[in-house]
Amino acid sequence: MTLANLIPAHPEPPSLALPYPLAVGRAGLSGFPSPAQDYEGRTLDLNERLVKRPSATFFMGVTGDSMVRFGIYDGDLLLVDRSIDPRPGHIIVAMVDGEITVKRYELRGQVPCLCSGNPRYAPIPLVDIECQVWGVVRSVIHEYQV
Amino acid sequence: MSMIGLVDCNSFYVSCERVFQPRLCSVPVGVMSNNDGCVIALSNELKTLGITMGTPAFELQHLVRQGRIHLLSSNYELYGDMSARVLAVLEEYAPIVEPYSIDEMFVRFDGFERDALLAHSQQLHRKVRQYTGIPVCVGVAPSRTLAKLANRAAKKIPAYGGVCMLQPGSRETQALLEKFALGDVWGVGRRLVERLALIGIKSAWDLAQADPKRLRQQFSVTLERTALELRGISCIEMSDFLEPRQRIMTSRSFGKLTDDLAEIREAMRQHGQRGAEKLRHQRSLARAVLVFLKTNPFRTDLPQYSPSLAMELPHPTDDSREILHAAGEALQRIYRQGYLYQKGGVMLLDLIDADRQQLSLLDTPQSDTERQRSAKLMGVMDELNHRMGRGTVKFGTPSPGAAWHLRCAHRSARWTTRWDELPVVPMG
């Protein structure tokens, strides 16, 4: 018997897309939605669409104007997924010198940088600086005044 | 071979706080009990200062003012949510996950080869940290008692990198068992250590080598089992475990999959009541109640939902009414229609001795008369249930009211469970 068929647990866990109640006392979720659910006429659930992995997804508010070019405005809501390994081009939540901030992770030449979406803020080269990625921003919720 | 893993979150309450407050990383941090009475959770840095569990908070105020240590009010809503997240990550890596307390979970692995399982456990260890921000230690072995020791080794010996797997009969296992004192073994209390020393059993290894029959005759079946477990023979189920008095957990599967709230509420009420009885029996008071529900993870055709919620009690208590009230409220908040639940349970957290003298000073308990009345009522109830069978006297609907006015001046935000308390990141 080969090793592969000896292992019942998922060596590569499937990513989980399930509704997940936000209000309180959040859930641990696993498994798969029932195919039959498509016929139940239930209402569409934004969690199902936006929260790919509930155990690693956190909500955060933001203030300021440094990410306007990337479509993140003062007062927006970010969905941050910690299960994603950051790659250049990702918008990330990072801890730089003990402060939490939101930046775009980019490579400038060979140098990894944290960049703003506003020319008033210079890129921060990640050289001689303590930086830890907190999570990757998966989506932004922007609510309009109506 | 079937292997059991014990996953233990490092300084869990403090770690939860640190996920959202990086400034608290690598500085001394403590979490205080209800009403900021005393320290109930400590970071390693705080322990290094010689501060211990139960130290009254007022004795530390000068250190707080000098900015040398940070003390926070307890934030059970956050801890409960983070615990559920850890559990959810574990469920991706192991077919069976059993919560043992708010910060400890057993996982079961079947059919792995040795090296594959070690790699799998290391990945689990990494992923829990990455996904939730909570650092954990993992001990893996064929029995729970050995898994607990493996976990301890993973925590204490840096070379393991947080994951220790013990195979029975290996030299590594022998070396560790020789190193560990008897008191480190699950279920071996101080008095037992003294008695065992008289017949030359001083280390965990000595106990593992002792003749099981003799242990049963001279001591108890439990000790015989512990010895067998140390040899890697699994013979203790989780429900058999002698609780180390710090938490009480009562849980059971519902017998069938159900979404009937009334049925679930009744089951939870029984758990709560049973837990409160155990609490009074061991003369402890609980500071918080955690309620959890689970759907059946093997029914991949059904939607899955495994919520949990921790509620702080207004003061440390062993009064069934207050415990049931909190448990009922928690259940109300986590229950969702449309899921078939398989199992549920109630945990009583952060227990303290009922007899502790400073209690009245520090924890603003009920008034004396109130407490005496409560003790009397509970005493009569336990007596009746003991004499005439469990469940003779039980509670209907929990008493409403009892406003939850708690002092929690230093509580961090409930970052993951309240819209109006989300972390806010400045973009500058």
Automatic annotation (TrEMBL), chain A:
The family assignment reads: Belongs to the peptidase S24 family.
Say which domain of life the source belongs to: Bacteria
Question: Looking at the keywords, is DNA repair present?
Answer: yes
Which gene is transcribed and translated to give this protein?
A: umuD
Q: Which organism is it from?
A: Billgrantia antri
| Name listed for the protein in its UniProt record | Translesion error-prone DNA polymerase V autoproteolytic subunit
Which controlled-vocabulary keywords does the entry list?
A: Autocatalytic cleavage, DNA damage, DNA repair, Hydrolase, Nucleotidyltransferase, SOS response, Transferase
NCBIfam families reported for this sequence: PRK10276.1
> Keyword DNA repair: yes or no?
yes
Catalytic activity, EC? 2.7.7.7
Quote the Pfam families the UniProt record gives.
Peptidase_S24 (PF00717)
